[in-house]
Specification:
By secondary structure, this protein is an alpha+beta fold. It has four helices and five strands; from the N terminus they run ββααβββαα. The chain is globular, with a radius of gyration of 17 Å. One of its GO terms (cellular component) is cytoplasm. It comes from Corethron hystrix. This is Trafficking protein particle complex subunit. InterPro entries: Longin-like_dom_sf, Sedlin.
């Protein structure tokens, strides 16, 4: 199993923009980040392509990027209350926290064998990572790496928004964004030998 089980990007109203779970399904031995999809089909940098395009006789189809089990979706939903609570605490303190860690909300809650961590941008976009439970020194190292992961996902989201053809306010359907997420998750999980 992999260390990072699910990753979600949510808008201000908590609507899912991007949800991905089951990263182990496309990380067999080593991932391919040159546009190859998990099913062996190829997509270009705009996120088009796929196995169904040739069979259907139609144009290319975008990759399915929003997938997570119902169980993972419930866990993400449970973490939202904890995000609201942490944000209220930050506001009540007058925002007097370390500026580098201002967006990183840290550990939100444990749910079953998972630990949920949060990150919130200045514009209210929330990023939630669901990580398999670990304790001790490994946990401290994981926190440092999670900050880096969240920061990378934030940069990917900003780059997605800079695309003039991106659908603002809707689900993120982009091969480039998905490929970037896969690379970030692969790097994170590789550090933990999963």
């Amino acid at each position: 199993m992999c260390a990072l089980a699910c990753l979600a990007v949510l808008d201000r109203q908590n609507a899912p923009l991007y949800v991905r779970g089951d990263f182990s399904s496309f990380f067999g031995s080593s991932p391919s980040f040159d546009g190859e999809e998990p099913d062996g089909s190829v997509s270009d940098s705009r996120g088009i392509g796929g196995a169904a395009s040739a069979e259907a006789g139609g144009g290319p189809t975008p990759p399915a990027v929003n997938f997570a089990s119902l169980r993972h979706q419930f866990m993400i939903h449970a973490a939202l209350d904890h995000i609201d609570e942490k944000v209220r605490d930050i506001i009540s303190l007058g925002g007097q926290t370390n500026n580098n860690d201002m967006m990183y909300l840290g550990f939100l809650c444990p749910v079953e064998e998972m630990r949920l961590y949060g990150y919130m941008t200045n514009t209210g976009i929330k990023i939630i990572a669901m990580v398999e439970d670990a304790a001790g020194v490994l946990q401290q190292q994981r926190e440092i790496e999670l900050k880096s992961l969240f920061s990378s996902v934030h940069v990917l989201y900003a780059e997605y928004l800079l695309n003039p053809f991106a659908k603002i306010g809707g689900e993120i359907v982009s091969g480039r964004f998905d490929e970037g997420i896969r690379k970030c998750v692969y790097d994170f999980n590789k550090k933990h030998n999963f």
